[in-house]
Amino acid sequence: MEHIVIIGNGIAGITAARHIRKNSDKKITVVSAETKYFFSRTALMYVYMGHMKFEHTQPYENWFWDKNRIDLKEGFVNNINTDEKKLIFADASTLNYDKLIIATGSKPNKFGWKGQDLEGVLGMYHKQDLENLEKHAPNNEVCKRAVIVGGGLIGIELAEMLRSRKIPVTFLVRETSFWNGVLPAQESEMINKHIKEHHIDLRLSTNLREIRSDENGKVKSIVIDETGEEIECNVVGLTAGVTPNIDFIKTSKIDTKRGVLVNRFLETNILDVFAIGDCAEQHEAIGQRRTIEAVWYTGRMMGETVAQTICGNKTEYKPGHWFNSAKFLDIEYQTYGWVFSERTKQENESYFQWQHPTKNTCITISYNATSRQFLGINTFGIRMRHEIFDKWLSENKSIEHVLEFLSDANFDPEFYKLYESEIVAKFNQENGTNINLQKKSWKRIFTKA
Ligand SMILES: Cc1cc2nc3c(=O)[nH]c(=O)nc-3n(C[C@H](O)[C@H](O)[C@H](O)COP(=O)(O)OP(=O)(O)OC[C@H]3O[C@@H](n4cnc5c(N)ncnc54)[C@H](O)[C@@H]3O)c2cc1C
């Protein structure tokens, strides 16, 4: 019986295993050095915040794996011998495969800062990071202050986690405004304000120079590069992005760049070896997507796709239109299609923007100024329907169409009762148009293109 071995039990690896089982009788082994059972990485923060126990982050009961004949092996793979189709583990044991799927995820970036390996310096990625945080920041008696370095989505989550235990937080962000390489200025500035309202000491345009140690090798303070200011702290969270977790693959014959290089079928240069999830890097970007996409749902899609190929139905990875969602403290964020920041705006890309005068609610719709084609939308504090935007993007609808039928896209009828006319009136005023907002229609919503 063909033996499929998957390194990594995250969303990508586990989705592949489940779909291979659905479609075949092959022998499946999933290897992980982190935990025996799959858990939801995106839910880790809620464990520290006391909203759930770690066991509750595991979507499947422990018996699921035996019942579905998916063998789980705990262990760290040190080496892959592709000539002999063999994995070599840290304890020198080995495992043979017929087909191999590499799904080893990411690791937090470290940029060679002095003191980056001291006790109390941690990333926020693996279960072990959570345990480390629990050890060094159980409360505000033990941890008098934490410093977070790097202003992305994981940084703001870590800040929220620490604040939930009333631990003072200083947040160092290299950019002039939070996440302004991704978000338009209106949104980025709203998030700056929101962070400060949560009593987080946000330092923009600020870089870390070094982390200083006490006499026991524990974090004592950090020093800011620009000013030389020293800030005393007991924990330093390094959240300046992630990199594919593939160091151990560099010694194999599998081609790598930043990640494991794959073609559109998620195949590597070596026959019978595939890579999926955060660790996979496309040779060439698919549309405007990045060659590496470290997000949950793309890992799931790649897992489903590779399972098809492995089960004899060769399938190309086609991720469709970009979307994502996240939370910035209390503000929900969704994005569909492409909305580039002012720093990365594409030729001819224009915005229509609306912001509530007092609440943390705003919209940016991006469109092509010449063709009027709708390109994408960011929403903060409002829930939108994914399938509607997906349809409009596929049908190349115009910005005017999006505004006219915006009520079909919203999940929250109250929002539009209050603001819909305001949004359309603003657009009409700015563009000299006369768009009449249509009432929500379930018929339109459920009619396929
Ligand atoms: C705090 C946090 C919040 C996030 N929030 C969001 C969000 O809101 N939305 C979103 O889309 N994405 C979010 N992400 C990103 C998302 O979680 C990742 O994109 C996704 O989990 C990656 O899945 P994966 O299966 O590729 O890899 P992983 O989940 O990283 O799994 C890889 C596994 O492989 C194991 N492994 C690695 N090397 C070896 C080896 N040599 N031997 C054995 N095992 C090995 C690792 O230990 C790990 O268990 C978040 C990430 C974090 C850390």
Structure, explained:
The structure is a single chain. With 449 residues, the chain is of the alpha/beta class. It has twelve helices and 25 strands. The strands form seven sheets. Strands 3-2-1-7-19 form a five-stranded parallel beta sheet. A five-stranded parallel beta sheet has the order 9-16-10-11-12, with helices on one face. It has a five-stranded antiparallel beta sheet with strand order 21-22-25-24-23, with helices on both faces. The model has no long low-confidence stretch (mean pLDDT 95). The site of flavin-adenine dinucleotide has 36 residues, from helix 1, strand 2, helix 2, helix 5 and helix 7.
Task: Catalogue the unreliable spans.
Answer: none
In angstroms, what separates the terminal alpha carbons? 43 Å
The tally of strands reads: 25
Query: Level of helix content?
Result: 25-40%
Q: Strand share of the residues?
A: 25-35%
Radius of gyration, in angstroms, nearest whole number: 24 Å
**Class inferred from helices and paired strands:** alpha/beta
Largest sheet: 5 strands, parallel
Give, in spatial order, the strands making up the sheet with the most strands. 3-2-1-7-19
- Regarding quaternary structure, what we see is single chain
> What is the correct CATH architecture of the largest domain?
3-Layer(bba) Sandwich
Average pLDDT number = 95
Distinct ligands, ions and cofactors found in the model: flavin-adenine dinucleotide
Contiguous helical run count: 12
CATH topology of the largest domain: FAD/NAD(P)-binding domain
- What do we call the CATH homologous superfamily of the largest domain? FAD/NAD(P)-binding domain
